[in-house]
Amino acid sequence: MKLKNLILVDHPLAQRDLTILRDKKTTSLEFRNSIRRISSVLITAVSKNFEVKKVKVDTPLEKTTGYELKHQIVIVPVLRAGLSLVESFLEMIPDAKVGHIGIYRNEETLQPVDYYLKLPRNIGVAKVLIIDPMLATGGSASAAIQFLKDRGAKDITLVCLLAAPEGVSTVNKNHKDVKIYSIALDRELNFRGYILPGLGDAGDRTFGTI
Predict the structure, then answer these.
(1) What is the pLDDT of residue 2?
(2) Is residue 142 within 8 Å of residue 133, measured between CB atoms?
(3) Which end of the chain has the lower number of beta carbons within 10 A, N or C?
(4) Are 39 and 13 in contact (CB under 8 A)?
(5) Does residue 37 have an active-site annotation?
(6) Is the Cβ–Cβ distance between 99 and 123 less than 8 Å?
(7) Which among 19, 27, 109, 209 is annotated as catalytic?
(8) Looking at 37, 80, 105, 155, which residue is catalytic?
(9) Would you call 193 helix, strand, or coil by DSSP?
(10) Is residue 98 a contact partner of residue 121, using CB atoms and an 8 Å limit?
(11) How far is the C-alpha of 162 from the C-alpha of 178, rounded, in Å?
(12) Which of 32, 44, 80, 204 is catalytic?
């Protein structure tokens, strides 16, 4: 299976926290703390190639040249699991705007079903980061990307903690222009569409609804 546009974030701290997330003994509190730390590593990697523009700034001693981001950043978590990544992303980009997409996967058909969409007005000129802990079948991610494109988004990046080959392949097939950032590429999906070895249901483990 040929996978394109996948960028794996290979960082020791991320691999440590991913191990904590995989462990079935990890509590919801520990899970949330690890999500927060690993999200900081992710946004640092994703933002590495953001464009900047020069600005003038007065230091206490003299004038100098500084930099600010050239483009507005819009963070779009996929409800509800994607909410767990938002805080760390906003800590790094405090002036980012946040939209929301509500999508759930029908457990029988494994197809995405949408139920909520709220986006900032400047979506067409912004760099848009879709965040969701898991890229499994790729159905929900592809649907989320298409919803954004239909509303004018042109620069979209998908950010996740774990990806399955099937999900990456689906996004590649449907959206060749979208880059995918992930901490790890796992082996496969099981018959229920869960990532193996994976870490279980990220939403349930984050919010303690197991």
Answers:
(1) 62
(2) no
(3) N
(4) no
(5) no
(6) yes
(7) 109
(8) 105
(9) coil
(10) no
(11) 16
(12) 204
pTM, two decimal places: 0.91
Task: Specify whether 17 is catalytic.
Answer: no
CB 164 within 8 A of CB 136: yes
Interatomic CA distance for residues 208 and 141, integer angstroms: 24
Catalytic residue among 32, 36, 155, 201: 201
Q: Mind listing the domains of the chain with CATH numbers?
A: 6-207 (3.40.50.2020)
The H-assigned helical ranges of the chain are: 12-22, 28-46, 83-92, 139-150, 165-174, 202-207
Look up 26 and say whether it is catalytic.
no
Before 16, cis peptide (omega within 30)? Answer: no
Helices within 82-198 (DSSP H only): 83-92, 139-150, 165-174
Q: Which tokens is 92 given? A: 């790094």
Q: What angle do CA 100, 104, 22 make, to 5 degrees?
A: 95
**pLDDT score recorded for residue 110:** 65
